[in-house]
Amino acid sequence: MRRLRHLIGVAALAAAPVAGLSLAAAPAAVAHDQLVGSTPEEGGTVSTPLTSVELVFSAAIPGEFVQVGVTDAAGTTHQDGAPQTVGDTVTQAVRQLPDGEYTIAYRVVSSDGHPIDGTVAFTVAGVGPAEPADSPSSEPAPSSEPAPSSEPPTPAETSSEQTTPAAESSADDGGGLGSTATVLLIAGGAVVVAVLAFVAAGGWRRGPTEDTDS
């Protein structure tokens, strides 16, 4: 009987260290994943323009359940597009961040299936204000002169252009008719003069004949 008790006591003493190690390791085994690093870091100050922020977790996490937002003190969001997850690192692109205080808010699903969330605060200083969204256009200003029209001329314009030569032709014809009339008048006058001369000559010859007979 004493021998049995002695064996049980020895076994209990031998198992005690193993049990203690098991209890110490148990919380670590059931603990959720957690954020272990970030860029910018918590409470840090950034003096160069940022194009993205990064979150690093204690284990790889599913990328389809990741949500990241970057806001300033006024609550304006600055994230650009969806976050990208590679293993334990989440990268979120951001638009230009002017000087000010910002907060990264995240929500992911741990590798054990439990959701975890948190925030990271940082400051931007020395970068300056954000550039205006619309830059001045480099295109030349439109000319004030009217562009040449490619449309066909209207019927009125066509009629005017076509009647101009006709008017000129009519004027030319009028000049020709005037010249012809002048020639005819001169010829007619010459004929009349010739007739009168003939009659006068005949009458002068008849005069002496009639006197002789009497």
How many H/I helices? Answer: 2
Structural class of the secondary elements?
Answer: alpha+beta
Strand order of the largest sheet: 1-3-6-5
Task: Enumerate the spans where pLDDT stays under 50 for 5 or more consecutive residues.
Answer: 18-29, 135-142, 158-173, 206-214
**CATH fold-level label of the domain at 35-124:** Immunoglobulin-like
Distance between the termini: 220 Å
In short:
With 214 residues, the protein is α+β, with helices and mostly antiparallel strands. The protein has two helices and eight strands.
Write the layout of secondary structure elements.
Blueprint: H1 2-30, E1 35-39, E2 45-46, E3 52-57, E4 67-72, E5 84-86, E6 89-93, E7 100-109, E8 115-124, H2 155-213
What does this structure look like?
It is a single chain. The protein is of the alpha+beta class. Among the domains are: 35-124, Immunoglobulin-like (Sandwich), CATH 2.60.40.1220; 163-205. The chain is 41% helix and 22% strand. It is built from 2 helices and 8 strands, in the order αββββββββα. The protein has a 4-stranded antiparallel beta sheet, with no helix packed on it. It has a 4-stranded mixed beta sheet with strand order 2-8-7-4, with no helix packed on it. It is rod-shaped.
